[in-house]
């Protein structure tokens, strides 16, 4: 049994921005992991899928410059790794949700100045 959590074609669909690309890749991997691991799959297959998830996500974080995921923990504890990834993805999603005006104070100042 050989499953990929992310297909080659998926990579071409991800956003260009490194943080958004990481979020998209992690979401695809997590969704596919959750679909593939069931009560009917063997423990060995589940472990391989979890290792694939940890290696894919940690490699993407390293390549894209996403901080906060301990790459050395990849082979140790899946639950701790998932908590680490959840912390990072939550931080990135919150950061992405800040309106553009709040991200760039110069735009806010020039907008206020023009409204006067």
The secondary-structure class comes to mainly alpha
Q: From the alpha-carbon coordinates, what is the Rg to the nearest angstrom? A: 18 Å
What series of H and E elements makes up the topology?
Answer: HHHHHH
Strand content: under 5%
How would you summarize this macromolecular structure in one to three sentences?
The chain is mainly alpha-helical. It is built from six helices and no strands. The chain is globular and about 55 Å long.
Topology:
Blueprint: H1 8-11, H2 18-36, H3 43-64, H4 78-96, H5 100-103, H6 105-115
Describe this structure as you would to a colleague.
- The protein has 116 residues and is mainly alpha-helical.
- It has one domain.
- The chain is built from 6 helices and no strands.
- Helix 2 packs antiparallel against helix 3, helix 2 crosses helix 4 and helix 3 packs across helix 4.
- The longest helix has 22 residues.
- The radius of gyration is 18 Å and the shape is globular.
- The N and C termini lie far apart (66 Å).
- The relative contact order is 0.11.
- The C terminus is likely disordered.
